[in-house]
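Write out this protein's structure.
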Amino acid sequence: MTKFPISFLALLFIASLTKAADVLVSTPQELKSAVAKAKPGDVILLKNKVWNDVQLVVSGKGTKEKPIWVKPENGDKVQISGKSNLKIGGEFIIIKGLHFKSGYSPKDHVVNFRIDNDNLANNCRITQFAIEDFSQPERFKGDSWVTLWGKNNRVDHCTFTNKLNAGPVIIAELNDERSQQNYHSIDSNYFNGRQRFGSNGGETIRIGVSRYSLTASKTQIVHNLFERCNGEVEIVSIKSGENNISFNTFVECEGSLVLRHGSKNVVQGNLFLGNNKPFTGGVRVINPGHHVFDNVFKDLKGTAFRSPLAVMNGVPNSLINRYYQVVDAKIERNTFINCEPSLFGTGKDAERTLSPQSVIFSKNLLVQPVKALYVDENKDGGIAIKDNALQGDLPTQEGFVNKKTTNVTINGISFPYLADYGAPLKKMKFVQKKDVGASWYQQEIKAVNTQPKIVKISAKESNSIQRAIAKLSDGDIIELTDTGFYSVDDEIIVDKSITIRAAAELKSKPILVNGSSKTLPAFITIDNGATLKVSGIAFKGAYGSGGDVRCGIRSTELPMNKPYKAFIDRCEFYDYNEGSFAGFKGSKSTLADSLVITNSLFRNISGTGINLAEERDDKGIYGAEYTVVKNCVFTNILGSAINVYRGGNDESTLGPFVTIENCTINEVDNREQGSALRLLGAQYARVLHTNFVNSGQGGRSLEFREFRWDDILVDHCNFYQSGKVDTYYNKALGKQIFEIKPEFVNIKEFNFNLKDGSALSSKTKAAGGVGASL
């Protein structure tokens, strides 16, 4: 019989007691208890199922050598759905493989690195996560998908897909010293798109807030891929000091990496690929002491705040949430390829009057720059431009020398290269998609309906339209087969992408009317994220003894987080008999990606023809990104033909974009101080080839409220016995403006085509004519 020393047996016994354990859990309560009891090195396994409506709490204490693990029972992931979230507290915990999908957090953030104010997470990590389709149903209800507290936490190899509601995808909070100088790492993640939010609050990452911006965060954001992150102007918003934002790749992002507050941040080795897409930006610099070097900016077409490089003017005696002066910044050894010019003195206006000072721009390489090598709004010597290289067709300026480059290929992309200027490309690697994000994640590809179904509905089947829609798939078509009245008893709700059209062979339009005694909010209401195409239909707001209809078409008043689209062609809207009624209305808190109205007639309306002015809080919010109205007639309207409103002085968004072409505005808004067209806050507006007749006589034909950088133009228009064009900077009017009495074919039959050979027709024909032709 073999005898073991007592000491050896004791060691075996102790080892058995300290061996790491695997614990399988299937409920939030079991998870919370298991982690709380876990010893360093223990592994908590999440049962392989869909965890629905769960608030998970993970709080324990591992060690650096033996962290506590929480991961799926088997496979790469476990799905978290419904009203769910995760709170992490304690030390040295690693959580792996959670897939948040088809839900939202009922309160607080989706993943929060603290249990409460007394239990922050330190030295903890989430990895191989994916979060998608997990936004609040109401887009202005804010949260973040990951909020970092404590110190030395890491978010890596995660995939974040298209957050829809207010709030950044990731936030690092700095509320007290326990979370300052935190050394967090946000690395190797894939930020897979973010649609335009239409307001401030659409950042992808934010580090700090203005209140704590004089504090060092020392967070690193490295080796991430940002692809089409278009939420707002600040894709990455740095509001603290001494952070490191390096070796990331930004692809077709309509915004910039912005050093918004804080000082002494480092921006190194990033790649910004615009692919010649509009609004694609690079780096914007505010505050002192930053170092921007070894970056590559390629094919970026953003301007102003979205310039490839924007160095801003500051505000004298700036409040902490405004703009500190840029001083002692170094911008060195960057490569700019086929980009819009860098802009020094960005945002210069009556408030931002402090020019950048002691800024060094040197050893940079510019290849085929567009329009200019750079623009300096101040020209006071605050920018030291010296020893840079240029290859291109533009003439050399002081501070540049002509050079001929060679090429370096990285990840299949060819880059111009010089050993002594620009980014050190031969030493650099750029992020590839295969190296970032959750390795197991594959985005679902939605099937395209290539054979749309057509459902024909007669007038006597009017009230079956809603039932028919319920059975349709995206891309299907409802066709109205009769002329005359389609009498409906309730609003028709469109919650998918469909077409409602008149049959092609009809000689007159089907007319929607209210067949009930109750007031309807609209004939058609567009729901969250839906697309409506409607053509050849009339919408009559008052009919017989039936109840009123407030709008022909509107967006829902229910919570919305996905933009809708509406395409309206050859339609007619008339007999809306109250001042709050409209032909089309964008409801508050909803956003149209595109509203396109063509070849249509709006008449006899006591309210507004097209109402996109429900956002009245003056926070920069607006109702439609792109509004296009072409070849339409507006006549006998008490309010404005088109009312677009974006109030406040927010600078984070691009829209609204408004294009009005070949329209006729006749007898519209002749009230005292009225406006036939109100385009307040439109950042891009084109009013072209439009005929204003007997409109805006008590005030304005056209009213703008623009900022100095807004792009607005009114040209090839006729103003006959109509009000003024009211703009703040008086720069809107083009050279082809007429005041000629129009001769219409037949006003009584709403034929506002110009008579051939009439004075206005002859005068404007060569330039494309004015007014609508229906």
